[in-house]
Amino acid sequence: MKGLYIHIPFCNQKCPYCDFFSITQWKVSFESYFEALLKELEYYASLYTLNIKTIYFGGGTPSVVPPKVYKDFFSRLGSILDLSKVEEITIEVNPESYGLEEFIQLREIGFNRISVGVQSFLEENLKKLGRKHSVKHSLETLKNLSRAEFENISVDLIWGLPQQTPQQLREEFKYLSDLGVVHLSAYLLTVYEETPLYRWVEEGKFNLPEEEQIETLYYTLLEETKKIGFQRYEISNFAKEEKYRSKHNLLYWKMEPFLGIGAGAWSFDSKKRWFNKRNLLTYIEAWNKRTPPVEEVINLSEEELLRETLIMGLRTTEGVNKELVLKKNLPKEIIEEFFTFKGNKIAFNDRGFLLSNSILSMLI
Ligand code: SF4
Q: Domain residues of the chain, as ranges?
């Protein structure tokens, strides 16, 4: 296992578009959850060689948890993992959670990458997304991160909002260039079933942009990222320099084995995927009895592994071995219009990324 994902399922509020496993009310202490995390890690350390290079705290909202809890966790982690081999330790934070003091503590603990859930630098878009933080919170957080001397700062943005114009999207970029941000994850707003947003769309209360508008916004996004010197390396991810690419997420896209711990977390060991039960109490009680709270194990056949390698690899600009695509006998015009060749690799070009869902469904 090369990567360690740790799921922190606590959130102050549930955002209307979110389908991650997270809870807004809990009766257990953070300490008891982190105790269970350590038990889970010990269990898998006895089954697998943990050659961990990256650690990623995702959520939920990991910044709901005070830094002291992370400090105690890391002081015990060293007896299970060789922390000296870990190159990247990321934590996702929401703009309203931590101040300068907390960021300094995080840096002292050993975190070296921060991913900030800004989502938008425009108040009206934050309202549309049902977010509770303000633009002021985001700007303050980014300034504090620089003051705390974090070098590797990433920002999440969501685009493809109702009535969003290219000009509005351009405005988001005004802030990015001079706030020390070196990585951007720009996600097209996706509507998941069983979320309030899904219902609003169905009832006509939330009007998603038409395809043409999405296309215009997409090319605006590419233009603006280039202007601030960011290079795309994955369908939704851009970095200022190669060294700022997310090493942890690259493990997923390259189909490297990783361990995911925590309620609802997924793991992959090169042959199978499994995920934990999405219930906090069940998760903690199970580890008190040292029984893995695994919800489901999915064994992958050779064919399924190849298919996943293709899907995950084509998310990156590095692409996949060209034979994987060419043997599917797609029409020549499709290959010419949507792909680009790099040595023995093939990857989507800009237009291919835009239409990747349709092309992938042809491929598989
Ligand atoms: S803060 Fe993040 S994880 Fe929590 S509900 Fe909102 S989008 Fe989902």
A: 3-253, 303-363
- Ligand 1 atom 5 nearest Cα: 14
Mutation test residue for ligand 1: of 7, 13, 14, the one with most atoms within 8 Å of CB? 14
Over 90: is that where the pLDDT of 176 sits?
no
- Rounded to two decimals, what is the model's pTM? 0.96
DSSP string, 297-351: EEE--HHHHHHHHHHHHTTBSS-EEHHHHHTT---HHHHHHHEEEETTEEEE-HH
- Closest C-alpha to ligand 1, atom 8: 18
Contact at 8 Å (CB) between 232 and 184? no
Report whether residue 196 contacts ligand 1, using a CB cutoff of 6 Å.
no
Does the 3-253 domain belong in CATH 3.20.20.70? yes
pLDDT tier, 174 (very low <50, low <70, confident <90, very high otherwise) = confident
Pairing of strands 183-188, 153-159: parallel
Residue nearest to atom 6 of ligand 1 (CA): 15
